[in-house]
């Protein structure tokens, strides 16, 4: 007759407990520092910006009140960011899938490094490249869009002769947010359960069907998070857009003409140096609107991610 003895889990020593307490304190402190910085930014924008909502009409030129003024700038911000997402998301997801599921490791690792290096390029470099190199090369493309797709409001024309349009700004923003979306999506795809992938292949699924039915459902929440982070970067980008886009506070869907909608961030950058105290308050007020809008977008993204995670755990 044999007897079994249960082994008790090893007890953590004083050094381990001390290390856990130190790490917990550092992590908690870091979280509160981020929350404090966020609250400080909001308080500054609220205190300095709220008076800018009711300044004399001359400070909102060419309009005469704050909300139409900031509404047009917000439209331009969202429009440029959506153009960037439409261009960047398919490329980013495709590159992430190529690195995680298609490319051999000898090729996947260098490609991943190159994509990650794009995130280290300063935005002013992207702006210079977009204004001096990309814009002139897109003139012929925009002219072709005007000639062949001019019946679509987005390409109605007349095409810009300089290439400095909201379409060019969207392309630059797409390249800037590409490494963010790619890096996060790549990590999520690589963490998909291997047994699920092998089971799908064993049942006769093709590689694409395996990705569609085994990888994408698992990675849905991570993909949404990656896209929302890219959107946040595009919404807040300043110098690259200011250097590429010849803009004014207008509402237009035409992406290739000389009349382009301005973004909030680029408008602040271009108007800040010569702003009077009253105009400065107006600019800070527009920054407050951008802050609130970005916070709302991120909050909605977190809600979508949480909902997807709840579906996966059922």
TrEMBL record:
The chain crosses the membrane at residues 26-53, 73-99, 111-131, 165-184, 230-251, 280-305. Coiled coil: none annotated. Keywords: Cell membrane, Membrane, Phosphate transport, Transmembrane, Transmembrane helix, Transport. One of its GO terms (molecular function) is phosphate transmembrane transporter activity. It comes from the Bacteria. SUPFAM superfamilies: MetI-like. Residues 74-301 form the ABC transmembrane type-1 domain. It is found in: Cell membrane. CDD domains: TM_PBP2. One of its GO terms (biological process) is phosphate ion transport. One of its GO terms (cellular component) is plasma membrane. It is a multi-pass membrane protein. Part of the binding-protein-dependent transport system for phosphate; probably responsible for the translocation of the substrate across the membrane. Belongs to the binding-protein-dependent transport system permease family. CysTW subfamily. This is Phosphate transport system permease protein. It comes from Nocardioides anomalus.
């Amino acid at each position: 007759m044999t007897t079994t003895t249960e082994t008790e889990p090893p007890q953590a020593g004083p050094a381990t407990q001390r290390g856990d307490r130190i790490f917990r304190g550092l992590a908690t402190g870091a979280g509160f520092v981020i929350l404090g910085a966020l609250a400080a930014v909001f308080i500054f924008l609220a205190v300095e910006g709220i008076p800018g909502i009711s300044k004399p009409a001359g400070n909102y030129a060419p309009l005469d009140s704050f909300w139409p003024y900031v509404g047009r700038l917000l439209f331009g911000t969202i429009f440029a960011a959506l153009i960037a997402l439409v261009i960047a998301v398919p490329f980013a997801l495709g590159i992430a899938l190529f690195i995680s599921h298609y490319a051999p490791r000898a090729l996947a690792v260098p490609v991943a490094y190159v994509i990650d290096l794009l995130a280290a390029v300063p935005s002013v470099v992207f702006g210079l490249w977009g204004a001096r190199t990309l814009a002139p090369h897109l003139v012929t493309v925009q002219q072709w869009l005007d000639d062949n797709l001019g019946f679509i409001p987005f390409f109605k024309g007349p095409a810009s002769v300089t290439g400095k349009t909201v379409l060019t700004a969207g392309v630059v923003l797409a390249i800037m947010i590409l490494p963010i979306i790619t890096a996060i999506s790549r990590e999520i795809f690589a963490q998909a359960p291997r047994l699920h992938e092998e089971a799908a292949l064993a049942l006769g699924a093709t590689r694409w069907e395996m990705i569609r039915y085994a990888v994408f459902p698992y990675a849905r929440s991570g993909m949404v998070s990656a896209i929302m982070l890219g959107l946040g970067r595009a919404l807040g980008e300043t110098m690259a857009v200011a250097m590429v886009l010849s803009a004014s506070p207008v509402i237009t869907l035409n992406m290739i003409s000389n009349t382009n909608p301005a973004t909030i961030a680029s408008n602040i950058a271009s108007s800040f140096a010569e702003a009077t105290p009253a105009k400065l308050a107006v600019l800070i007020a527009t920054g407050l609107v951008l802050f609130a809008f970005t916070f709302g977008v991120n909050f909605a993204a977190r809600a979508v991610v949480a909902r997807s995670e709840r579906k996966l755990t059922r």
